[in-house]
Amino acid sequence: MWYKEHVRLALHHDEPSSAHLAARFAEERVLSKIQAVDSKARRKGLSALDPAKGALVRLGVETDGCGRVTRNAYTQFRPIWAAARMAEWAAAADAEMAGWKSGMRSVIWVATGGLAADKLALNACGLLAKGPKQYVLDSSDPGMLEAILRTIESRTRCRRKEALGRTAVMAAAGPDDAQTPLVVDALVKLYEKHAVDVPAHFLAITPAEARLGRYCAARGIRVTELALDNDAGAAWRHSAPLTRAGVYALALAGVDPREWARGAALNEAQIHSAWSLASFLCQQAAAGRGKVTLLLSKSLQGAAGWTKLALEESLGQGMGPALRIITGEPARLADYRPAKDARADRTFVLVERKGEPAVERQKLALLKRAGYPVAVLQLDAAAPLSAYLQFIHCAVFGLAWLHDVNFAVRPAAALSAGLTEALYQNALFQGGVERTGEWLRFRDSIRRVPWRAGLCFHYDRMPCGVEAGGRDAASAYASILQQFSDAGVVNCGELIWYGDSRYSAGGGKVRKALERGAARLYRGALKMPCDVLEGPALSEATMGQGGCFTTLVLPWEMASGAGSGYLRAQFLAAQACLEKRVRLVVVLSVKDASAESATALEEFFRAAAAGL
């Protein structure tokens, strides 16, 4: 089987050489020390771990206000040295899904962050094609929920009540997740409205003491732990390949859980290959080439978003030289600065299965010949996706260890979540987000320029000296972007759509318009990478990165419900969080998620590109 073989990693233009960094892992016996820390936590409890006395402990645990260890993130390495037990636990989790698999035609996964990203990756990679159709609801937007329900009704040819009776709701959440209980509450009320038995259709995968756990227990909904061995660790934080939620999703689709578990059991040589990749990326970032363009072969492309989140959520903390993972871009040399250009900041990582290249060999040869740093990781053709996911987890730790950064905490995400909660609670007191001072400040700011078809450019979070100067919206946007780009302050962009782009036709068209805008304005005209994301779930990871010009895209009209208020609170919190981190952020508001709004956005970016 593949996991008995060595992963093939080839590094090109590794200059200055990262070999000395990679050698440190073996010289300092890092793997055996990790195993010792995790073993101690398992045998003696978390109280036996003291971050003040061990650097490795400090890098992989969460602590409370008194410095006591509350979670051990090294649990994600357990598939490596407890493969047999993990396979048994995965098989047991598979058996737990037997009744759900036979009784349900659809499953709605309610989750955020990594616990949603792994389901999206599994689905996009075709692993959830069999069994009940599985949907991922990772937003509080009532419009996304309605779009999913309409899709289920259309696919099953059932009315709402009958469709709900054949749909299971699986909710997965960490202890501090406030969004998931809110969405689950909306679904519970919907099932009760249609007189569908809630406990028979709902399952919560979360710590019992978490918000979601307490909510579900009070309503007779079954609650189970995220980790297969019931040791929560950082299971929700990094969406490890063997969380109970991930295995449940695979079990519903008929994927062999034992084979999946064995795939995550990397051997020592493979782990050191992951750390060699981490060393390569660390060295390139230190040399100013921290924009990592990820190119995946066809069968792995669905895991691009998960990879970005896994690497950035723990490493985007303003640590040393920042890394930014670029996904969703075609390999086009015309979009890159020459490798010898002083402003060139690209590094390329190609991940492919044997016999399935990530890019055409001619393009790979051109990248190497042009002098770009390139890493090529090749898996065997039979390698399960779990192997790749575990490999990336090992690379995340490797980067954290080299930078001396705790990979178990997410200060940027915590800041965003705290601001959202404060805004939402204030909105409940005020009678709605639209009545809060923060929303009125945004809505009524004089620093805005209207465009056609209801589109408006808002720049009230820009530094005081930045003004539109009588320009139209597209010219003002282009002028501000050009100014910061020329000054070297901005070297990448991100366009974040606060709406559904997966299940609604209008949102999908908006997403395509943003993709074309990113290609035309950022990659084409400015030669800089640009992410197109769906907020807020996948955007919180990037809040620690500098040099980025963030554009939030907000529809004024949203479906009514508590979720829309929470989504708007997240939108306001994102602006405040970015401003606190000295990040440049502007807003494009559109009337709604429609074809007309998509057309307006496309025309806007076309005009902005022409104005550069």
Report on the architecture of this protein:
By secondary structure, the chain is α/β, with parallel strands linked by helices. It has a 6-stranded mixed sheet with strand order 13-14-18-17-15-16, sandwiched between helices. Strands 1-12-11-9-10 form a 5-stranded mixed sheet, covered by helices on one side. A 5-stranded parallel sheet has the order 5-4-6-7-8, with helices on both faces. The longest helix is centred in the last third of the chain and has 21 residues, at 505-525.
Model regions low in confidence, pLDDT < 50 over at least 5 residues: none
What is the oligomeric state here?
single chain
- End-to-end distance: 54 Å
State the share of residues found in helices, binned by percent: 40-55%
Q: How would you state the average pLDDT, rounded?
A: 89
